[in-house]
């Protein structure tokens, strides 16, 4: 579970950096994030598919933990 939370925090940090990069490149933020997500998804699935296997079972719990208050 800790690895999954760390992954979510890392993805949020990447999103923040992507926002600054999109401003610098003068691209719409949403377009830049979609392209970044496609590249990241393709890279993870093709280079290291074992990385996402443990997260598939825990992902619904992570979403509920992050989005819903206790």
Q: Could you characterize the architecture of this molecule?
A:
This protein has 70 residues and is an all-alpha fold. It has one domain. The protein is 83% helix and 0% strand. It has helices spanning 2-25, 29-47, 53-67. The chain is globular, with a radius of gyration of 14 Å. The mean pLDDT is 81.
3D shape: globular
- Residue share in β-strands: under 5%
Distance between the termini: 17 Å
The total count of strands amounts to 0
Properties at a glance:
mainly alpha, 70 residues, globular, 83% helix, single chain
Care to give the gist of this entry?
With 70 residues, the chain is mostly helical. The chain is built from 3 helices and no strands.
List the helices and strands and how they pair.
Blueprint: H1 2-25, H2 29-47, H3 53-67
Helix pairs in contact: 1-2
């Amino acid at each position: 579970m800790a690895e999954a939370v760390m992954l979510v925090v890392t993805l949020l940090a990447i999103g923040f950096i992507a926002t600054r990069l999109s401003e610098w490149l003068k691209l719409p933020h949403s377009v830049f994030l979609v392209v970044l997500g496609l590249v990241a998804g393709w890279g993870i699935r093709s280079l290291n598919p074992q990385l996402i296997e443990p997260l598939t079972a825990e992902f619904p719990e992570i979403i509920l933990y992050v989005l819903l208050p206790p």
